[in-house]
Amino acid sequence: MIVLRRVRAFSGQLLLLAVLGGLTAFLVSGPARLANGRTDDGLRGDIRRLAAANRDLTFSGVHVLGEISSATGAGRVPTIRQELPGPLPGLISGAWYIAETGQAGILPAGAAPRSCPDVAVLRYQPATAAAIRVVAGRAPESAQITEAMVSEDAAQALRLKVGDRLAMNARWGSAPIRVAGVFAPVNPADPIWSDQQLAKGGCPDPLDGLREEAVLLTDQEGARAAGSLINDLTDRWRYRLDENRITADQVPALTRAVAEARRTPPEKTTVQSSVDSTLAEFDRQVHAVRSLLAVVQAGILATAAGLILLAARLMTDRRRPEFALLRARGGAVRAVAARTFQEVLVVVPAAVAIGWLGGMLTPGRADHFEPVLIGGVALLAVLAAPVSAALVARHPAFSGHRSDVAALRPSPRRLTAEGFLVLLAAGGIYLVRLRGLDAGAGVDPYLIGVPVLFALAASVVALRAVPVPLRWAGRLAARARGAIAFLGLSGAGRAPLHSGPLAVLVVAIATGLFTGTVTSTIGASRDRAAELAVPADAVVSGFYFTPETARQIAALPHVRKATPMLLASGATIRGEASVNILQGQTMVVDAATAGLDFPAVLTGARGTGGPVPAVVSPHLAGQIGAGGSVEVLGRSYKFTVAEVTGQVPGLPVGTRDFLVLPQQAMPIPDYQPVQPNRILVDGAGFDVAQIRKAADAGQREQLRRATGRVVEDHQLAVPASVLTRDSYRSALENRGVDGALSFTFVAGMIAAAVLSLTAVALAVLTGAPARGRTLSRLRTMGLSPGQGRRLLVFELVPLIAVAVVAGGLAGFALPALIGPALDLGGFTAGVSAGTSLDPWLAGGVLALAVLAVIVALALENVANRRLRLGTVLRLGEEQS
Fold first, then answer.
1. Where would I find the ABC3 transporter permease C-terminal domain in this sequence (predicted)?
2. Angstrom distance (rounded) from CA 857 to CA 851
3. In the chain, which end has fewer C-beta atoms inside a 10 angstrom radius, N or C?
4. How far is residue 62's CA from residue 84's CA, in Å, rounded to a whole number?
5. What global pTM score does this model have?
């Protein structure tokens, strides 16, 4: 009961400690779970978007030369699954046996051969019997002739009906097929159909346009008979990975399992899948996001831990007289600590448990080390106040000891510790740049704590550097009229007294600004990547357009300009310095009118009849020397290397060998004009469908001129596509881990802002009694309430300004200092735009500082009312 009465008496201080403990416990669990959940969602989305051939594990049967399948391998489906390395067996949602032929041309029986017939695969898949609904005819019952079923879509596209006869012509033979029925899937979304979709494919000769690619279903006898005739029938065992069971922490083990299955597949099989490549790329991004999240989380948790220590210090400072009385009556230091420990146990553990429970209720996946962090938070929250009470009980500050003077004259021990902290931060920065945040064995706690150490080092440097200019300012203020500025700056000049709040505030601001700087840097890099990949408002791509197509697109509504461009992959290049024939990306564009960020040697180039100036990549320039020749659409053009650069607009980032020619300076004959395959479109509000339609019309006209025959849109080998810069930029933010990345940034900045305000509030509450006594004495000399508030502003603004400057510089410098370890290139399509800071973010930091001053004034007003300043002179130290 005595403990409960003391808890009630000091409920405000204990409640503050409990709230901070519960908040810290929530910050340990809740945001991390949400970030992990978003990471898992991104992984599942990446896997879900993969084609069936890439995402599924498919084992193909290996047969001796000339041998074909007997279509009797369905019994191996469970056997192969059991032989898969863990954790693959538990992540499979569907498994099917397939016996099928390769793609072969199909023609109506008796029809004349065509240069590009439609193609089909003949498949026997037992599981499809329960997944189809017969809409015409019947299921196959092969006897003298192979019978097959076609889907409704395939029947319409191939113009087939029940009873039609086909000839399947393969390399080694031909098989007759009769259409026995037409079916529709019971559930079109069933994964069994994901590799049986009707599709369009290109003909061997692109001028022939497109052809249909279908799957025909047959029975076991039909597959065996047709396979014998065309000497082509292979077993396949297909296993679908269930993305809903896969989490990001399973990716390394899953990648190793797929690689092991590829190295040692089941007997007489080979593996076909690229899911391990997707998983490996995702894992690389997860490592980068995990490192960023760990840095932000370390900064936030360090700030929260600092606030807990400040709250414990506030609690014990307010109870100095009580502890002095206990010591005067013979109480031991441990008795004082035990007394405080009992009070804390009543409130704080329950608050930490509630905070953890709140974090557990957030959707997502917990980290495996979450219980350890929660235990650390609970230990800190429970022991902070008792340890602080023990230190206070041992401190000789109960009578006449000037702690402020002692603080202004730091001991050699303290200076040594501060110097060691600075060296520790500098050494950590060096190690992070040398090794990275994750050297393959998981995140290193020391290296993750380096940004916190760097911010603390910045606060130490500021702590030692600021008092001197503040004393100078105080001396200047002493010469001016009024004592408010002098008194406030004198209080601010005793900066070591505020070392705790200052350090916490610097860490919070550094964490928030680091998060914001990384956000701005990634955003600026993505903007640059979008400008390089889509150098206009939109890029139209196709096979070849007529030279007039750009003018036709430019005439469309809301289109300001359309510039034709040829981008030839693998163009033949001959250089003066190399006897070998080289290949590279060749771009031909009218650089003078394109309006792109090209070098002046291209935009100012004019035809002289000699070699044209060219911009060349560094690697290609080292091979070709000063110039050479390049083939463009079968015609050779001579060029000289006018400038070497690593990147030009319109080419993918990372292109190693490229050559850019100014079309306006090239000797292009009228009878052999350059046929563009790209059109750069500038404008706003244009209709993408209209542009695509005009582009396809240009492609059809180009084919008519080249072949003399008329084709339709569906016969185009490469239908026109329109990629806008905005859509490309949005796509950079909608990849697998971007959800976790965005959440990390937003949560980090919000948490840093809230904790910064809390640090200022605790700084105000810590100094409230001393300021209250000062204000009470000054009131007797005529100090008004408004002047009292100004006194607080003069005392706090330097502290906040120093924290903003020190934390801001630390937060802005951190991405540059540890940038190589963050691996931000994976989020920006490989483009690096340096370190940048959004002006709005800088304005937000200033707004936060102003808000902190407002919060401080409000709290000071509340504290003064509770302290009853009018009675301080009568009650003296009792109000302390």
1. 749-858
2. 10
3. N
4. 18
5. 0.78
